[in-house]
Amino acid sequence: MRMDELPTPCYVIDEGKLEDNLRILRQVQERTGCRILLAQKAFSCFYEYPLIGRYLKGTTASGLYEARLGYEEMGLENHVFSPAYKEEDFPELTECCDHITFNSLTQLEKFKDRCGRAERGLRINPQLSTQEGHAIYDPCAPGSRLGVRIQDFREEYLPFIDGFHFHTLCQQDADALKKTLDAVEAQFGPYLHQVSWINMGGGHHITRKGYNIDLLEQCVCRMKDIYGLTVYLEPGEAVALDAGYLVTQVMDVVENDGIRTLILDASAACHMPDVLEMPYRPPLKNSGLPGERAYTYRLSSCTCLAGDIIGDYSFDREAEPGDKLYFMDMAIYSMVKNNTFNGMALPSIAVMDKEGACRIIRTFGYEDFKRRLS
């Protein structure tokens, strides 16, 4: 079927665009020798793992379930970082992970002798904030719980550390990475010769148009050439950036105080939580800014949350119940964060090939809602 024939709501993964992104990432690997991993926290549609595994070196996880998913469904190099590990989870993590990174010296001390074949990493905090306007995503903010500061680092732990890890970026260009590397070198430089790898985390918007790939590659080669380190990058968004849609249908049109609102069967709160959390206004196919086109509407949902508002958009014609709308860039941080608040149905998942043909790979129903509650 074509995308306009899909039942709604439905996520659609654009496999052509996904592969375009993967080609860019593979080229970075080939030119620099770095190893790029899929950050599953952004995109965990394991149906596409065979494709992703043909281009990238493996997966990275934020806990046991993601680690298991990467191990079972991609089966390549598998890393995990968590601010703290549960005692009962750790034996399984050592079975399915190649790298286990610790957030504190306390956690390293607790588990350092139980990692088995897995290499041990330590997350560091270079204390350099590069975020602008998104404090919720700043792991270098004062009082941050994420990573060990240089003033808290203890040299006696070096024999138990195979590599350092930092993750300070969010949807940023390579200039922020360069500034971060300057801080890492200034603070941890004496220790970089004593480990074998460095993981520069995620937040690198490598596949975004205009991203400074040359500078990224300079940063990677700098760590390789000066310190002899294997360099890891673990982008999530860059893998599936602009590679997905959320198809929704207009259910009703409501007008109040001069504002016309489209009631949709998709929800910001349930199906694209970053719209409210970030917040941001997601791109919508064949639409414009408010007032830019003839007919302006506020897009909302059929949940009870008054603030479940996606944004204001304009169209060339009046909207009617039954119309389908296509939100773009919905592969990342959508399926992994969605929920069933108000008993909302989870969107189906479809894939679209390079010719535009779609097929549904997963549907959800009442039992999916019910079984997670009791």
Automatic annotation (TrEMBL):
Report if keyword Lyase is assigned.
yes
Q: What is its EC number?
A: 4.1.1.96
Any one GO MF term held by the record is: diaminopimelate decarboxylase activity
- UniProt entry keywords in alphabetical sequence: Decarboxylase, Lyase, Pyridoxal phosphate, Spermidine biosynthesis
Q: Which residues form the Orn/DAP/Arg decarboxylase 2 C-terminal domain?
A: 11-330
Any single GO BP term: spermidine biosynthetic process
Q: Which InterPro entries does UniProt cross-reference here? A: Ala_racemase/Decarboxylase_C, De-COase2_C, Nsp_de-COase, PLP-binding_barrel
Domain of life where this protein originates: Bacteria
Q: List, separated by semicolons, the cofactors it needs.
A: pyridoxal 5'-phosphate
- Which Pfam families did the record assign? Orn_DAP_Arg_deC (PF00278)
Q: Which residues cross the membrane?
A: none
The question of whether Manganese is a record keyword is answered with no
Q: What class of enzyme is it?
A: lyase
Per UniProt, substrate binds at E237, D274
Q: Mind telling me what this protein is named?
A: Carboxynorspermidine decarboxylase
Q: Which organism is it from?
A: Clostridium porci
